[in-house]
Every structure is written in C-alpha cells, then in structure tokens.
Design brief:
The protein has helices at about 1-10, 40-55, 80-85, 100-105, 145-160, 175-190, 205-215, 225-230, 230-240, 250-255, 265-280, 305-310, 315-320, and strands at about 30-35, 65-70, 90-95, 115, 135-140, 165-170, 195-200, 220, 245-250, 260-265, 290-295, 295-300, 325. The longest helix is centred in the first third of the chain and has 17 residues, at about 40-55. Helix content is about 40%, strand content about 20%. The strands form two sheets. A seven-stranded mixed sheet has the order 7-6-8-9-10-12-13, sandwiched between helices. A six-stranded parallel sheet has the order 2-1-3-4-5-11, with helices on both faces. Helix 2 (about 40-55) crosses helix 11, helix 3 crosses helix 4 (about 100-105) and helix 5 crosses helix 6. The model is unreliable at about 15-25 (pLDDT under 50). It has two domains: about 1-140 and about 265-295, Response regulator (Rossmann fold, 3-Layer(aba) Sandwich); about 145-265 and about 300-325, Response regulator (Rossmann fold, 3-Layer(aba) Sandwich). It starts with a helix and ends with a strand. The protein is of the alpha/beta class.
C-alpha cells in the first residue's frame, strides 16, 4: 500500500483526495479525462473535446462533471492512475492515447473507455475489430492510409537537399513494430537514409538526439509515443539548442518547436471522440460502436524554427499549409 501511495504521489494523485469533484447531483454524468502529460499543458490541446461535449448539451458543473488526471508521461504509473480513476466510479473514461486506453481496459472491463489514438486499435489490442469493437472501449483512430509517406514527401519539399534523417522510436509504444516498418518503407520509397534510434526510457532521449547531431544528422522524425509527447516542450528546446529540425505527426509538436508536422486533424478526431462519448453517456454500448477513422489531415509549418535553423521554406509549401507559426 505504501509503495502505491508513493507512486501516486509522484504523479500528483492522492488516495485520500476528496471526492468534492463528484459531489454533484445524481443527474450529472461523471467523466474522467486522462492526459498523457500534465493536464495544464495538455488541456488546451484537448479543448475541442470539451467544446464539442458542450455543443452536444453537456454543460460542465450542470449536467456533467469532469475529473482531469495527469499521466505526466510515466507509462509505468498508468495502471495506478487508471485504478484511482476507476475507484471513483465515473460513467466514462476518456483516454487521449493508446497507452492510456490499454491501461484502462486492463484495469476495468466494465467502465466505458473512449480513446483517440494514432495506433492501430486492432493490432494494439484495444478492440476486436474496427466495425465491432466487442469490448468496453471504442473511439477514433487518428491516422490512416499512407500518412508517413506523405509526411516524408512534404519534408523533402521543405528540405530539398536532405538525404539522411534520424528517427526516434519508443520501443514501448503499443504499435512499435507497425511504426518501425511504416517509416522504413516510406524512407526507402522517398530515397531517404533512415538512422534509427530506439529507447525504452526517457532518460536516453537527450543522448540519442545529441548522437544524431554528432553524426551529422540534422532532421529528426519523432515517433508516436506517450513518453515523448508528454515532454515535447523539453525535446523542442533541446532540438533548438542543437540545431535539429524536428518532424512529427501532431500539431502540438509544431507548437513545441518542430519544423513540420503532418498528420490527422487533432481537433476533428477529438470532436468525433466527444460525439462517441455522448452516445455512450446516453446509453449506447461501446462494444457496438464502430471505431471511426480520421478523414482530415493537416500540415503545420513553423517559420520561427525555420529562421533559427537558417532555412527558407518554399512559398508553394507555405501556401498549402493549414497553419503557419511565425
């Protein structure tokens, strides 16, 4: 018990925490939102979920109460975090990554879990099939199709002379093998040499990034990872200090200093997740709600980062960007 208290204290959750957040009229729905990093940093990124819930009639402190819990990128503590959430008896858990959703369905097979994820929900074990999830979890897959190949093509437009790129990959990511193969295949088609650096603990990341720079690699692709995403600001600052151009799959990475991001429209996927959550709160069963797949993608470019790196991005590429940070 003492070790569990210590772990939970480390992630900012107390077993003795008051239930004031749930001290609401019985008619209120109760939803736990689990963030990959700190809730303070991640809530703005997840705001479209809350906004869509409000649009659907779920008004916070009136007919719905949210409890926000922070994973802080600590994969080893996720099950303890979910256990605390489940103990409080919510009507639904909203998981903002595959790692969190997997921890949730391991802890409980009763509470409905709605997820948004870049991982394949079937191969990662979240659902039996996209059409019929069959368990207590369903949600939105944020990436489909040949998105990695498209990202590499955009990178070559931004950096026409690039021939070798680094790839930072989390061996503990739920779809590690799929990510690895997709990036290797896309690099081969794009005629890019891919230097792979794998890690299992965040403490190794700075050393791996420094190793890229020492070896003359100046462009680094960041893999999908709860651990990396939770620390994206630190990684962005390290990359800036070391002259590394980051390329990633989520717009939040561009806000943290990445040169280019291309992937699923995060706001769209979160709104879809909210619509699924609303259906479940009204009585639908997650086992019978098909997993939705992203249909919208977004390109974001960071001019401030480009300037710091001494790069000039092509006008044609800037014109096609959905958002430009300057």
């Amino acid at each position: 018990m003492n070790s569990r208290r210590a772990l939970l204290a480390a992630i900012g959750v107390s077993l003795a925490a008051p239930r004031a957040a749930w001290a609401q009229p019985a008619r209120q729905a109760r939803v736990v939102v689990l963030f990959a990093g700190d809730a303070e940093d991640d809530e703005p990124a997840v705001r479209p979920f809350f906004d869509e819930m409000h649009r659907l009639g779920w008004v916070e402190d009136r007919n719905i109460a949210y409890e926000r819990l922070s994973g802080r990128g600590m994969r080893d503590y996720l099950e303890q975090l979910v256990s605390v959430a489940a103990d409080r008896g919510p009507d639904l858990i909203f998981a903002t990554s595959a790692s969190i959703a997997l921890a949730a369905i391991k802890v409980t097979d009763k509470l409905p879990v709605v997820f948004t994820t870049t991982s394949d929900p079937v191969t990662s074990g979240l659902v039996a099939s996209l059409a019929r999830p069959g368990r207590n979890a369903t949600g939105v897959q944020r990436a489909s199709g040949n998105v990695v190949a498209r990202r590499f093509a955009l990178l070559k437009e931004a950096r026409p002379g690039v021939g070798r790129i680094g790839y930072l990959l989390d061996r503990r990511a739920p779809d590690y093998e799929r990510q690895k193969q997709a990036h290797q295949d896309a690099a081969q088609r794009a005629k890019l040499e891919l230097s792979l650096a794998e890690f299992t603990n965040y403490e190794a990341v700075a050393k791996l990034l420094a190793g890229f720079r020492r070896d003359g690699v100046t462009v680094v692709v960041v893999g999908s990872s709860l651990t990396l995403f939770a620390r994206r600001r630190d990684i962005g600052m390290f990359a800036a200090r070391n002259g590394l151009a980051l390329v990633a799959h989520r717009v939040e990475w561009a806000d943290a200093g990445a040169l280019l991001t291309y992937g699923a429209d995060i706001a769209d996927s979160l709104r879809r997740g909210a619509r699924i959550a609303s259906r479940i709160l009204k009585g639908a069963q997650p086992a019978a709600i098909a997993v939705e797949q992203s249909e919208k993608f977004e390109l974001v470019l960071n001019l401030k980062t480009a300037g710091a790196l001494g790069l000039t991005l092509p006008a044609a590429l800037l014109k096609r960007a959905h958002r430009v940070i300057d």
